[in-house]
Specification:
Chain B: Its main location: other. The complex is a heterodimer of chains A (524) and B (220). The relative contact order of chain A is 0.05. Chain A is elongated. With 524 residues, chain A is mainly alpha-helical. Chain A is 73% helix and 0% strand. In chain B, strands 2-3-1-4-5-6 form a six-stranded mixed β-sheet, with helices on both faces. The chains are: A mainly alpha (524), B alpha/beta (220).
Chain lengths: 524, 220
Amino acid sequence: MLGTVNKMKHQMMLFFFQRGNLPSLLLASRKKMSLKSERRGIHVDQSELLCKKGCGYYGNPAWQGFCSKCWREEYHKARQKQIQEDWELAERLQREEEEAFASSQSSQGAQSLTFSKFEEKKTNEKTRKVTTVKKFFTASSRVGSKKAEIQEAKAPSPSINRQTSIETDRVSKEFIEFLKTFHKTGQEIYKQTKLFLEAMHYKRDLSIEEQSECTQDFYQNVAEKMQTRGKVPPERVEKIMDQIEKYIMTRLYKYVFCPETTDDEKKDLAIQKRIRALHWVTPQMLCVPVNEEIPEVSDMVVKAITDIIEMDSKRVPRDKLACITKCSKHIFNAIKITKNEPASADDFLPTLIYIVLKGNPPRLQSNIQYITRFCNPSRLMTGEDGYYFTNLCCAVAFIEKLDAQSLNLSQEDFDRYMSGQTSPRKQESENWSPDACLGVKQMYKNLDLLSQLNERQERIMNEAKKLEKDLIDWTDGIAKEVQDIVEKYPLEIKPPNQSLAAIDSENVENDKLPPPLQPQVYAG
Amino acid sequence: MAAGGGAAAGRAYSFKVVLLGEGCVGKTSLVLRYCENKFNDKHITTLQASFLTKKLNIGGKRVNLAIWDTAGQERFHALGPIYYRDSNGAILVYDITDEDSFQKVKNWVKELRKMLGNEICLCIVGNKIDLEKERHVSIQEAESYADSVGAKHYHTSAKQNKGIEELFLDLCKRMIETAQVDERAKGNGSSQPGAARRGVQIIDDEPPAQSGGGGCCSSG
């Protein structure tokens, strides 16, 4: 896999070489070109202009006297050979590393099982680093004298160009484009930056503090020169400084972020573990003035967490700072919505602590150290970014030292929570909600509802059964009662009553009725 | 190591000022009144009152003031040094109706003097003078204490907008003085703005000897 990565890198490099627009070339070559054309004006030798391979086309001194086609072929061949060599070297190194890793692993024993993956990654990274450095040596020795002058013309240091990735290249281009607008000053700045990068290359073995020192000195010197010599107004100096920082730190990042010579990594793991152990801390304990029941607020909280986690993915200290600032703005929004007044530090710091606890941002200590060491100091000391960064440092310091008192808990409670025996959320089941994500929240709610329904159903079933029983009992009771009554008052059949017979007879008081009308005949 | 304080002619000074004091003494109201001229107002436009800036022009000298609010809760007390590192001035606020808050100020003063020496300009501020009737900290006591530690004492009311302008103006003047003394000490010209770098403590401590006596802070 490593081989493929290297190969890709080479191909990419090749691409830039072929196009001949290696960014470093632009400014440096301009002067040379004009010199050469002058000389050419004095004596023109036809053979000197033709391709050295004799293909009939014109050659170009920039391509060692080859024409573009022949040069490409030549170059490609050399490249292929080198790729092959590098590949072999990388493979050998990886084998060695793996052996070393295996032995170190066995000596470490089983207890570091959880770290093994991490170690592995680190070892891989180390291998890669070693390869690049070695590659640089093989390259320069192989390049030979013919190419050497070209290399010189093209780039001050082969090592710098050799490690270009898409991003570094893009940044370089932007940097050059940016500097072009400053003409002479820009050129001067570019030269200084290049010199600095070269110097830094040879300082890689120094301690990180010394490297940081050099970088800070560089920032200071460049800024000063711009002001005194270049007479650049302060606002522009700031802008240029930002660009310089972006340019050099994109290149240096790989070597100075979480370097192996420091215990940054150990600290990263320590704080990560610590935050994990503190998973039970609730907003109430920290007195966080944010009400996550409000959807807008919980939105802001999520955004803030995303921002703080994103910090790790940035390379330039200023971009990392920007992430912290963005996170802080979201926190302020959340507080503003909840409390409806501007957030003071009394509100902000606890909320930031809470966000850090919830987010557990990766490589927190490394990032903080990196920013402290390599950020342009003027930004870090007085600006708004600096303020939020300071607050983040405070939050981390607080988390590291946090104890029962700082959460207003009794020592026993704190110890129990820390040991994981109990969780404050179990006791007050209402409070878990802000912590869970929406889906989980919904699930818990549904489960709750289901159990409630279950209970109700059982109750209804019980009641129904009771009702059934009652009904049966009731009919039984009624039947019994009827029986009783029937027994008590047995049905006797008596002879028909006299009066009853009279009613039924046909001529009831028949004689009392007036006589029926008789037809009468009137005289007519 | 006055952070970014120094400024050659024609350039702006930039000062960092920390606000210290217990919660509820009115730190936030104080800065909001100063920067927005508003008190407990529903129309306050800023999202936050923890980091505010103000541009001033004092006698032709441009000053960029960055005001850093700090969390006042007791549990965050230990974080103080991270906040006030590299600051040029500190405003220590107490509530005149609350004896305890004055004690806190005393603690802060001790700590600041210990950590930053005389480089930092201290202001002790008795806030809420609109509640004079409920005063629990005597004026004499507070003022004589301020004198004894080389700080200046101010009476303010954020509610009635009293004494706040004066407080900040005075503080700025004192910080400029300190910065100038500093510049001269460094040997004119060699001093660069932003020269002091955080993390790089130049602890040769010659400035306290240079400023002499109670430093700038008692000069007022």
